[in-house]
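subagent[fold] <- orchestrator: predict structure for attached chain, return tokens only, no commentary.
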Amino acid sequence: MIAMPIAVVNYFNAVNEHEPGRFLEAFDEQAYVLDMKREFVGGKAIANWSKAEIFEPKVRFEIKDAKEQDNRYIVTVAVDGEFDKTNLPDPLLMKHEFLIADEKIKELHISFP
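subagent[fold] -> orchestrator:
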């Protein structure tokens, strides 16, 4: 696995340690998140998304693979938490693709690998 930028490390650690403030600090103020074809732009939208989709269901990530490609960091994680897992694969793998600028997450695309 590769060494990841501090913003990416902070993103995953903040989720796993349930620290929404630290999570939001990893993002640029005008960051763009594309989560399974749903778009969120800016701090307020990302805060609302992360509260509902990550922190309330107590999501946890286990990093399975990380690579750098075309100036982006692509991290595959196993996802767990307190959410309905009906008809979901086990393990549930998700791809997180990060674009970093000025040590902050500028873009995040989340999809199935």
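orchestrator: received. Logging for downstream: The chain has one domain: 6-111. The chain has a mean pLDDT of 97.
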